[in-house]
Design brief:
alpha+beta, Rossmann fold, 5 helices, globular, binds adenosine-5'-triphosphate, binds magnesium ion
């Protein structure tokens, strides 16, 4: 089966603090791979390395036979690699109750698709965390 994602002996550091010491992966078409390990062992950093968010210091990353470890993250994302960020840090100023209300004031821009009606309006106004 064809290899879709190949990570070859990568090393990654946050500044002078190296946290990835030679990880290799070979993920084939149709496979689902899971990265397991205790807290702080480097699972997220491995994903960040693949996406170029924390670029690798050494080693190579290939996606569909294209070398991507020197690419900018936006280009890597356009190839079809995505990450779902952990934590609740995406929209810390947003809350569930306020947003649909604001969007409903601009129906021409949102074509009514965000007018989710009373079900959304009943969600408590819980702000995100930092
Ligand atoms: N922005 C950062 N700056 C410096 N060190 C960091 C940074 N992010 C993570 N680290 C360190 O890198 C190491 C690996 O962290 P990482 O978040 O990749 O682990 P993880 O396996 O995803 O952990 P968890 O299971 O808690 O999600 C840890 O020692 C962590 O403290
Ligand atoms: Mg993590």
């Amino acid at each position: 089966m064809k290899t879709v994602l190949r990570v070859d002996n990568i090393e990654t550091a946050y500044g002078r603090s190296q946290v990835i010491f030679g990880i290799s992966l070979d993920i084939k078409e149709g496979e689902t791979a899971t990265l397991l390990g205790r807290n702080g062992v480097g699972k997220t950093t491995t994903l960040r390395s693949i996406l170029g968010l924390t670029p690798v210091k050494r080693g190579e990353v290939h996606f569909c036979d294209q070398r991507i470890d020197a690419m900018a993250t936006d280009r890597i994302a356009r190839l079809g690699i995505a990450i779902v960020p952990e934590g609740r840090l995406i929209f810390p100023e947003s809350d569930c109750a306020g947003k649909p209300g604001r969007l409903r004031q601009q129906p021409q821009q949102n074509q009514g698709s965000m007018d989710a009606g009373p079900r959304v309006r009943t969600v408590p106004a819980t702000a995100g965390t930092r």
